[in-house]
């Protein structure tokens, strides 16, 4: 059933129930009032009959029931009495609508009177098949000789109320019809306010919204104009390391200084980096949600710096890989043609020597990596870089004292591969216009420090550039460049290390990372020599 019909049915049912309850209460109150009035009238009539002289004088006379019954027979026609009993002290009827019951004993529960009757009283009950009775004692010369019972059945009362009941029913019908009309208008307005959607469709949309928010890689928070959180996804809780939920105060977030009304008075967008205690760096972007005339709240997007860095590296690697594949394809074709020619000339020894010549450097590098570097990700990176640089006639060597058994405590494989990859790529760019092209990599560790040294035979770097080279988009290679060293600086800062730049004669980059703990004061510093 559609929502509109459900609302109409519910409201109509409530209105009908309310009208019925109202009618029942009104009818009960009205019927009770009429019954009580009839009962009082019956009691008054019983008092008048009990005071009749013929009745009082014959209550003690022999065969007095004959005179008493004759005395009251005419009263049925003069009053609205439906039945009249006169009962003696010994419990016999002296007057009864049925002649055969005259001078017979009263049966149990034949009348509603209970207890000894010493003064006039009455009885009535809220039941259609019940009756109303009035009672009055008969006193002859001051002595109680019997009592009078005057009764009217409720059916006659209902007959007198027939017209009023019809009007009450018409009132109820009009009230129900008005209620149905109001229910229709209410349901239509509600349907319009929810854009004609059914509850199941709304529930599906909300469920889809929650699923989408929870599967977005970024943390998403939204607040209303009162500073209450109205949207929180799981990634936001995980990135912040906090248990927050919808309804919490926006001021509970750690960067509350960027969330005040004064801060957002003239701002629409603000982005900053936020470092958590566990050396995790977040990129926080805050948007002001403004309507034409009022502020609706804030939208906060939180990203893990490592994910942002990873995306940038993947884009860079894809571009480099494409270029490398093009170069390698050309170079491999030349080598295959040379080998093919030697085989056709039946110069088999020459072919073997040629193959050994072009594979020897890679084999030597593979042996060196296997012996000196026990971290597979780092070794794999160096082997790949060696193959790529060899095709470009750039010599990549590993320092003979290099040895790596494990990484620093807080470092991950992707941290070291990102540092090395960006430094080697930076050196490769610097060697483009040089004939003597070489890059040397050294990795050294002891119990306290982990050192990375990358040097090249390039032109080096002037002092002014050393001061700015770690800033994003600052590069000597042109527009849309300069991200590599900025990424390196960010990783080193997170790991609590230091960077030292020098010229000898080409650029020498030396990075020092703590093996087990953060270097005090070293997370945001680089040193130039």
Question: Could you list some keywords that capture this structure?
Answer:
PAS-like_dom_sf; ATP-binding; 20% strand; 529 residues; alpha+beta; 6-stranded mixed beta sheet; transmembrane helix; 5-stranded antiparallel beta sheet; 14 helices
Task: Give a structural overview.
It holds the Pfam family HATPase_c. InterPro entries: HATPase_C_sf, HATPase_dom, His_kinase_dom, PAS, PAS-like_dom_sf, sCache_3, Sensor-like_sf, SPOB_a. The chain crosses the membrane at residues 7-30, 165-186. The protein is α+β, with helices and mostly antiparallel strands. The protein is 47% helix and 20% strand. It has 14 helices and 16 strands. It has helices at residues 3-50, 53-58, 64-73, 75-78, 154-160, 162-193, 199-215, 234-240, 305-344, 348-372, 376-391, 413-430, 463-468, 484-494; strands at 83-88, 93-95, 121-123, 131-140, 143-153, 219-223, 229-232, 269-275, 281-290, 295-304, 395-398, 438-445, 449-456, 498-503, 507-514, 526-528. A 6-stranded mixed beta sheet has the order 11-12-13-15-14-16. Strands 2-1-5-4-3 form a 5-stranded antiparallel beta sheet. α1 (3-50) packs antiparallel against α6, α11 packs parallel to α12 and α12 (413-430) packs antiparallel against α14 (484-494).
């Amino acid at each position: 059933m559609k929502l509109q019909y459900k609302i109409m049915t519910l409201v109509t049912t409530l209105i009908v129930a309310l009208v019925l309850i109202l009618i029942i209460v009104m009818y009960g109150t009205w019927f009770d009032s009429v019954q009580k009035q009839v009962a009082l009238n019956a009691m008054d009539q019983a008092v008048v009959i009990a005071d009749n002289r013929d009745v009082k004088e014959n209550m003690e006379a022999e065969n007095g029931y004959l005179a008493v019954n004759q005395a009251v027979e005419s009263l049925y026609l003069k009053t609205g009495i439906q039945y009249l009993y006169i009962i003696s002290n010994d419990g016999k009827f002296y007057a009864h609508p049925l002649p055969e019951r005259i001078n017979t004993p009263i049966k149990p529960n034949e009348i509603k009177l209970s207890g000894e009757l010493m003064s006039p009283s009455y009885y009535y009950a809220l039941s259609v098949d019940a009756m109303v009775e009035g009672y009055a004692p008969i006193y002859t010369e001051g002595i109680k000789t019997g009592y009078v019972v005057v009764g009217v059945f409720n059916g006659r009362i209902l007959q007198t109320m027939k017209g009023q009941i019809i009007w009450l029913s018409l009132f109820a019908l009009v009230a129900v019809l008005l209620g149905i009309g109001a229910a229709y208008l209410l349901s239509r307005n509600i349907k319009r306010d929810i854009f004609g959607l059914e509850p199941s469709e709304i529930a599906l949309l909300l469920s889809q919204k929650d699923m989408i928010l929870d599967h977005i890689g970024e943390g998403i928070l939204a607040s209303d104009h009162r500073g209450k959180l109205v949207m929180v996804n799981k990634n936001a809780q995980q990135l912040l390391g906090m248990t927050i939920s919808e309804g919490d105060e926006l001021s509970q977030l750690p960067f509350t200084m960027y969330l005040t009304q004064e801060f957002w008075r003239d701002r629409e967008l603000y982005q900053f980096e936020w470092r958590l205690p566990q050396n995790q760096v977040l990129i926080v972007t805050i948007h002001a949600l403004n309507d034409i005339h009022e502020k609706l709240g804030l939208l906060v997007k939180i990203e893990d710096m490592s994910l942002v860095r990873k995306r940038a590296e993947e884009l860079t690697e894809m571009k480099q890989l494409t270029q490398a594949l093009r170069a390698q394809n050309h170079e491999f074709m030349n080598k295959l043609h040379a080998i093919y020619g030697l085989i056709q000339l039946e110069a088999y020894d020459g072919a073997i020597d040629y193959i050994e010549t072009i594979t020897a450097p890679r084999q030597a590098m593979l042996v060196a990596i296997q012996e000196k570097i026990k971290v597979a990700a780092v070794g794999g990176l160096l082997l790949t870089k060696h193959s790529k640089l060899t095709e470009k006639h750039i010599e990549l060597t590993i320092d003979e004292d290099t040895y790596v058994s494990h990484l620093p405590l807080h470092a991950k494989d992707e941290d070291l591969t990102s540092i090395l990859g960006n430094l080697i790529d930076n050196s490769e760019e610097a060697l483009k216009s040089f004939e003597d092209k070489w890059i040397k990599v050294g990795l050294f560790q002891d119990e306290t420090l982990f050192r990375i040294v990358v040097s090249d035979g390039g032109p080096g770097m002037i002092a002014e550039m050393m001061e700015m080279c770690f800033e994003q988009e600052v590069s000597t290679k042109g527009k849309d460049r300069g991200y590599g060293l900025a990424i390196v600086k960010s990783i080193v800062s997170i790991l609590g290390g230091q960077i030292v730049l020098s010229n000898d004669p080409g650029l020498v980059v030396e990075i020092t990372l703590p093996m087990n703990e953060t270097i005090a004061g070293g997370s945001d510093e680089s040193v130039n020599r």
